Each structure stands twice: as C-alpha cells, then as structure tokens.
Amino acid sequence: MITKCPHCNTKFKARDDLENKKTKCPKCEQPFTISKFIPHSTPQVNNVSTGEKSVDTCASCGKPKREGIVYKGNVCFECYKKSSNRVEVYRKPLMIQYRCEKCSTKVESSIELAGKKDTCPTCRHENKVPEGITLGKAFLGFCGGIGLCLIIVVVPPNSPITCVTGIATFCIGACVSLMSILAFISSKPSEKMRQN
C-alpha cells in the first residue's frame, strides 16, 4: 500500500501488515502511524482559456488515468507504445499565416490547405491559402544564383574562350536564372495582400 507522512508529505510504499503501526518517516524521521493514503479526487474543471474540459482519461483508449503512470500529452504510455507513428500523436501541425482579403484579420491555416480555400473566422470570407515558398522554389532560386555566377565567372568579357563553351554556359545560366525568377514571382503574395 502507499502511505504518506503527515509532516513532510512524502509518499512511500509500506507493507499491508504495517497498517496502524507507528514508524519513522524515512525522509524527515518524524514518528507517525501508517495509514493507507487515499488521494483527494478533484472535480472536473472547465479550462476557461480553451473551453476544453480537463482530461482524466487517455485520449486514445479512453481508460481512466491512474496515479503513478506516465502520460505523454493526453495519451497513456501503453497507447503511446502501440502507436505505429509516435510523432503524429504529439506533432503540432505546420501553419501558414496570412491576412484575410476582406477584413485584414490575421488567419492561420494548416499547411495541408495551401493553395485551397479556407474561411476567415471573423468575417466568414473564403480566402485562398497562399502556397508560400516551397523547397523546390527555394532550390530553383539557389540554382539561379549559381547560374548567374557561372555567367559572370566562366565567361569573362576579354578572355579567349571557345564559342561553344561560352554559348553553352550562357544558355544554362540564363535558363536557370529565368526559372528562379519565375519561381520567385509565382511565390510572391498578390498585390491586394501586400497592401493589407
């Protein structure tokens, strides 16, 4: 059984046959009579900030939470162990922030909605969620910078270089630069959103 020292509030295990016997606390060494510790049950309280009720059950299996069991977030350790993708249990979804086209309210939408429509919580206007710069567009921008460097470094103006090498280098650099410029232009927010 679990008992608790009335002087220092230390909880520890004691054999059942020692109930109602006098002993000294192993921490503060004060004498007390061993009795079974019964935790006070706390009533369920509403969380004012989020409107959610406090959780006393596992969010996954619904079993009541027990004292002494480690919980990861609102999921008991058994469910956490069984979960095939443990990261998804606790990962906060990536969000895209933008302003509503109608009322200029700051809106957050899940990254899965990029390029799709989402409703503004204030004015209920349907906005297209901006896609933003993706990894591919950032890579094209990087390649564009390298392409410009190739044009400048490899083809100096007054050096004897073969025509084929110069033209090939120029074409590659120009194509990569053009792709990066197009990627940059397509990733910019609309004129209306820049004014907000």
List the main descriptive attributes of the protein structure presented here.
196 residues, alpha+beta, two-stranded antiparallel ribbon, 5 helices, 31% helix, elongated
Give your account of this protein's structure.
The chain has helices spanning 77-82, 86-90, 135-154, 163-187, 191-195, and strands at residues 2-4, 11-13, 22-24, 31-33, 71-72, 75-76, 95-99, 106-110, 117-119, 126-128. It folds into four domains: 2-33; 53-91, no CATH class; 95-128, no CATH class; 135-195. It is built from five helices and ten strands; from the N terminus they run E-E-E-E-E-E-H-H-E-E-E-E-H-H-H. A hairpin with a 2-residue loop joins strand 5 (71-72) and strand 6. With 196 residues, the protein is of the alpha+beta class. The protein is elongated. Helices cover 31% and strands 16% of the residues.
